Amino acid sequence: MKFSVSSSALLSLLATTGKVISNKNTLPILDYFLLELTGNELKVTTSDLETTLTGTLHVDNVESEGTIAAPAKLMLDSLKEFAEMPLTIEVNDQNWEIRLSWKSGSLSIPGASAVSYPVIQTLSPDCKELSLDVDTLVNGINKTIFATADDELRPVMNGVFFNLEPGKLTFVGTDAHKLVRYEMLLDNEITASFILPKKPANLLKTVLLKEEEAIQVSFDSKNAVFRLKSHTLVCRLIEGVYPNYNAVIPANNPNKVLVDRIELLNGIKRVAVCSNPTTNLIRMDIGGNQINLTAQDIDFSVSANETISCSYEGQPITIGFKSTFLVEILSNMETPTVMIELADSTRAGVFNPVYDDKRPSTTLMLLMPMMINA
Predict the structure, then answer these.
(1) Could you tell me the CATH number of the domain that includes residue 258?
(2) Is pLDDT of 75 > 90?
(3) How many angstroms separate the CA atoms of 170 and 162, rounded?
(4) Which of 161, 139, 134, 142 is closest to 216 using CA atoms?
(5) Are 162 and 145 in contact (CB under 8 A)?
(6) Residue 131: enclosing H or E segment and its boundaries?
(7) Of the candidates 80, 85, 144, which has an alpha carbon nearest to the alpha carbon of residue 366?
(8) What is the pLDDT of residues 7-21, one digit of tens each?
(9) Are residues 275 and 355 part of one domain?
């Protein structure tokens, strides 16, 4: 294998695909990049057995094709030291030595045979396919991934739930304390669902930033494939039945609060400093177009309160929330104003961003309350 390539283009590709590589790989070969040169196309593959990311790059001056496993850390550490310049990469097929040459020098890195590199999972013939707009996929993941859990006992909650219905796509993330449901109108006739694990979801967020064209998504009961312009992500899905999220969303919420999101967020952050570090409880007394935020830690005799003006419809209500969850929910909205809908102090609060215009998507965030000690 011998070819020429731009140092920055190669580094960019390796840095992106390298995000798949785990710190604790079960197989030594998974600490390597799989480089495959066919014609003028260099294909780079990384895998952790659950997730596989493949990227392609156009290279020049190809003298011979081939396949090699290159050590990821050494390759990245070496390429980071180069300014933008052409590199010639040559592989010795006898001892798997990788030689990088440039105008004023060269370096050699020990490679390995690619024979033992794991084979990429394939989908079943009856897999389902759809095309998704980049913005739809990015927004769906961004708005829900923060609400997913890290729960070994309930793995279905550790990913983003994709629910396809005719004319609609719903993204859901929940950890049983908070829940986010993002619904998007979609020209779709499929009825299906799958749970995308957190790691490939985060990888997609990174890779999609450079995409403009529609993403082709294929999936069966065990795996999903996301085909982008120059990358392909294959991942194992989380198997299991996702909880009935619609059942926990309160339907009748007579108490409605309209409040400035940033003002409320900053007020919570200030008051939360004095909350109990174990519970992070913040008490909200709402009534008379005011929200009174209170937090205290009896053990250290500290307390704080702040009053924020709002527009309120309903009976006076007192409810407690975990401040860290409140901050997460309010931080993951982009509108200046938020609508909080409440039923009573024991039922979940529903947070809706308030948009000035009509949109093809709706975002609903839900937070379970905490008991307030009398």
Answers:
(1) 3.10.150.10
(2) yes
(3) 6
(4) 134
(5) no
(6) strand 128-132
(7) 144
(8) 999 999 999 999 999
(9) yes
Specify whether the CB–CB gap between 346 and 369 falls below 8 A.
Answer: yes
Residues 82 and 159 in one domain: no
Task: List, as one string, the DSSP characters of 318-337.
Answer: EEEEEHHHHHHHHHT--SSE
**Do residues 14 and 42 make contact, with C-beta atoms less than 8 angstroms apart?**
no
Domain boundaries, position 352? 249-367
In residues, how long is the chain?
A: 374
267 and 306 both lie in a single domain:
yes
Task: Please tell me the predicted confidence (pLDDT) of residue 372.
Answer: 83
User: How distant, in Å, are the alpha carbons of 9, 182, 272 from that of 128?
Assistant: 34, 22, 47
If asked whether residues 268 and 231 sit together in one domain, one would say no
pLDDT at 373 over 90: no
Find residue 44's DSSP bridge partners.
35, 55
- 119 pLDDT higher than 60: yes
Is 8 within the bounds of a domain? yes
Pairing of strands 255-260, 128-132: unpaired
> Within a domain: residue 120?
no
Alpha carbon 101 to chain centroid distance?
38
pLDDT computed for residue 374 by the predictor: 44
* Helices vs strands, H then E, count in the chain: 6, 26
Q: What is the reported pTM?
A: 0.91
**What does pLDDT average to over the chain?**
93
Supply 334's token pair.
């982009």
Task: Give CA–CA dist 282/370, Å, rounded.
Answer: 9
The more confidently predicted of residues 326 and 300 is 326
Nearest CA to 255 among 318, 306, 211? 318
Which of 119, 125, 172, 173 lies closest to 151 in space, CA to CA? Answer: 173
Using alpha carbons, select from 262, 229, 136, 233 the residue that is nearest to residue 188.
136
Residues 6+ apart with CB under 8 A from 188: 130, 164, 165, 166, 167, 168, 169
Number of domains in the chain: 3
Mean pLDDT of 49-77: 94
User: Across residues 103-110, what is the average pLDDT?
Assistant: 93
**pLDDT single digits (tens) 242-298:** 999 999 998 889 999 999 999 999 999 999 999 999 999 999 999 999 999 999 998
Last residue of a domain, one of 222, 246, 270: 246
